[in-house]
Design goal:
The two termini are about 25 Å apart. The protein has one domain (about 60-310). It contains three helices and 17 strands. It is mostly beta strands. A hairpin with a 2-residue loop joins strand 9 (about 170-175) and strand 10 (about 180).
């Protein structure tokens, strides 16, 4: 749930899909948890020598990870939460969220936990041509502020969960306006935010400082021709020669292929450089290339933007 005031749990949920969502769990339960920061006191004792005599904790950290999938109904939420920082007076930052977690332990006892002041520090969207990986996975890391134990959480109805899942065949990657849809075998979009929990005299972090972000794409595609190899080597000439600064560079997911202007999520990248390129040819396989794509900010165009068309 999106917070109006940092570290304060909302009393009203807001708009579903925009201010709050129910997360569809993937292979692993969320690892969001509280971790005490411990101290050790050493001392010298008769017949023992120097020994640890006491331990304790005065502060704790909130953090963890969530594994889910990208659904179109939730794309706008994730865009605000982690895909695109919010810029106010030229200063980027991320909104904060309260995370509710509930589960039943082995004895059947219900447990409810609440974590406030959470910000998502990274996100990775990934998919491949492997049938078992057809879903577009979404992996997230986060840090937070306060931990509140035994918080009641009402069970949701089945209708609140998403159903419009983005899959591999809905993806396209374009460089300089040229589609790689018929060549690519895998793609991974990573967004990393530079953050740091700030502690003072409280037991929890008072705020999460924000310093910037780094997007990048990794993809494997068939070696159809040597144009990408040549472009990669242009960095030895100049940045301008190596960058895809004209044409459209984007990673796009279109849920409704019949009307591609509707229901889609588009990551547009500027000044894309092939930062790394490895060619592979196994004895009984095709030629493929694995590329690392880096966008660059030029004070005119943001290095990456995300737009979600919801209907």
């Amino acid at each position: 749930m999106k917070e109006a005031t940092y570290g304060t749990a909302p009393t009203v949920a807001g708009t579903a899909g925009v201010d709050f969502i129910w997360v569809e769990l993937a292979e692993n339960d969320p690892s969001v948890d509280v971790k005490p920061t411990t101290y050790q006191i050493s001392g010298a004792r008769p017949s023992r020598g120097v020994v640890e005599i006491q331990t304790g904790s005065s502060q704790y950290a909130v953090g963890g990870s969530i594994q889910t999938y990208l659904y179109h109904e939730q794309a706008a939420f994730w865009n605000t939460a982690v895909f695109s920082p919010t810029v106010t007076n030229n200063l980027p930052d991320l909104p904060s969220y309260t995370i509710h977690k509930s589960y039943a332990d082995n004895s059947g006892t219900f447990r409810g936990e609440q974590f406030t002041g959470c910000k998502f520090t990274s996100a990775t969207l990934s998919g491949s041509n492997s049938g078992s990986s057809a879903m577009i996975g979404l992996s997230l890391n986060l840090v937070g502020s306060k931990f509140i134990d035994s918080t009641a959480l009402s069970y949701p109805s089945c209708t609140v969960f998403p159903s419009q899942l983005y899959t591999w065949s809905m993806c396209d990657l374009q460089l300089g306006g040229v589609s790689l849809k018929s060549l690519m075998r895998s793609v991974s979009l990573s967004i990393s935010h530079k953050t740091n929990p700030i502690f003072h005299a409280n037991a929890y972090a008072d705020r999460i400082a924000y310093y910037g972000w780094d997007p990048k794409i990794a993809s494997t595609w068939d070696l159809d021709n040597h144009s990408y190899t040549a472009k990669h080597r242009q960095i030895m000439t100049s940045f301008a020669a190596a960058a895809y600064s004209s044409g459209v560079n984007k990673f796009e997911l279109v849920y409704d292929s019949a009307t591609p202007t509707l229901r889609k999520t588009t990551f547009t990248l500027f000044n894309v450089v092939i930062a790394g390129l490895n060619t592979s040819k196994p004895p009984a396989g095709d030629f493929t290339q694995s590329a690392d794509l880096m966008p660059y900010y030029d004070c005119t165009n943001m290095d990456m933007t995300c737009a979600v068309v919801t209907t």
